[in-house]
Amino acid sequence: MTSSIDISLIQTATHWHDPAANRSLFDRWLEGVPASSDLVVLPEMFSTGFTMASIEQAESMDGPTVSWLIDAARRTGKTLCGSVVIARHTQSTAKPEYVNRLLWVTPAGEVTSYDKRHRFRMAGEHLHYEAGKDRVIVKHKGVRILLQVCYDLRFPVFARNRDDYDVYLLVANWPAARQHHWNTLLAARAIENQCYVVAVNRVGEDGNGVTYSGGSGIYNFQGEADVVSFETEAVLSGQLDMTAQANYREAFPAWQDADRFHLDSI
Q1: Between 20 and 30 A from 10 (CA), which of 129, 226, 251, 259?
Q2: Which residues contact 223 (CB under 8 A, 6 or more apart)?
Q3: pTM tops 0.90, yes or no
């Protein structure tokens, strides 16, 4: 495993229901990402805004936004991730199912996906999107990264570190009305799992009139915000010191006393 990872987070407002405009928007933001960053994180539903118009806004895995991610990752030499409204087809259903899919795309064109498990019922997400079933962990330079989306943040059992990941990565459209919850829960996930938490939120107002205050940041394994920004559009960059995290977990091995559990649904 590498001793450190350089990460950039893109915190911005997005265009409502306009994937082409958002792809151009993030092309411009990518120009400002430091050369040293080899992992770039975009917000939840970065191509559309947090929408319940799943049928109208969904793309396929060979559609323009996934193609853009693959091209941008190859062009910049950086791994990119962010969530997109996707229509997935299964053998058991004649019609497509719609998912809020977090995509992890490497410069080599490799694509890994995580479908959001916990759907935000207060906005009706459970009525328009299918729930993901799998817990997905990717590797980046030997570092194990758990993929999560927005509302997942409220459910610590699903994300409990079983000594199987080093970084908890979350993309979101988390409203300003519950900013205190966001700030508190990010720190809690870092402390209880003794891991880095990397979280990207958006700013501005969406097409439903919901406002967002950002709060994107990097929290270290003691729950301290190494990097955080509110309200403003920005590229936030930081470094994860994996050696320091390993040393902390060895010196304070609370993880060894964690309760064992099993989720029947996964």
Answers
A1: 129
A2: 187, 188, 190, 191
A3: yes
Cβ-Cβ contacts under 8 Å for 56 (sequence gap 6 or more): 17
> Tell me, what DSSP letter sits at residue 37?
-
Half-sphere exposure of 236 (CA within 13 A, CB side): 27
Which amino acid makes up residue 259?
D
In whole angstroms, give the CA distance from residue 96 to residue 86: 9
The pair phi, psi for residue 240, each rounded to 5°, is: -95, 120
Q: What are phi and psi of 247, to 5 degrees?
A: -65, -40
**Is 265 domain-assigned?**
no
Query: Could you give the CA distance from residue 100 to residue 149 in angstroms, rounded to a whole number?
Result: 8
pLDDT at site 156: 96
In this structure, the number of other CB atoms found within 10 A of the CB of residue 160 comes to 17
Q: Reduce the DSSP state of residue 261 to 3 states and report it.
A: coil
Considering the domain boundaries, does residue 181 fall inside one? Answer: yes
Residue 178's CATH number: 3.60.110.10
Judged by DSSP in three states, 186 sits in helix
262 domain-assigned: no
**Phi, psi for residue 77 in degrees, rounded to 5:** 75, 25
Low-confidence stretches of the chain (pLDDT < 50) are none
Q: What is the pLDDT of residue 92?
A: 67
pLDDT at 261: 82
Strand, coil or helix: what is 255? helix
